[in-house]
Amino acid sequence: QVQLAESGGGLVQADTSLRLSCAASGRTVSRYAIGWFRQSPGKEREFVASINWSGAYAVYADSVKGRFTISADSAKNTVYLQMTSLKPEDTAVYYCGATVSSYSRHRWDYNGWGQGTQVTVSS
What we know:
This protein is mainly beta. 0% of the residues lie in helices and 48% in strands. It contains no helices and 10 strands. The chain has strands at residues 3-7, 10-13, 18-25, 33-39, 46-51, 58-60, 68-73, 78-83, 92-99, 117-122. The protein has a 6-stranded mixed beta sheet with strand order 2-10-9-4-5-6, with no helix packed on it. The chain is globular, with a radius of gyration of 13 Å. The N and C termini lie far apart (40 Å).
């Protein structure tokens, strides 16, 4: 129903910025909210932020609140994650998924995962 593809990751230094993109496709894309998750070795995939296509509401994990901004461009079927003040702890593979469960923070409520994009933040 929905397919997602992440891009924009890279290797950056701490205190710099990076913008990730999540391109969505499928006939029913508009029925889903989009969430960003991240996963580092040895850890579970954790919630980062989510947004509905209208952009009316956004939800953030406490660990990124104030530093990351999620936005949605419905015309482009793309959700962005603007990351600022990056820390080494932000190093992870970042994934986007789709959910019909409003602004769930639970990974099991999401589907259509892309392959992820690697973000590496050096000290």
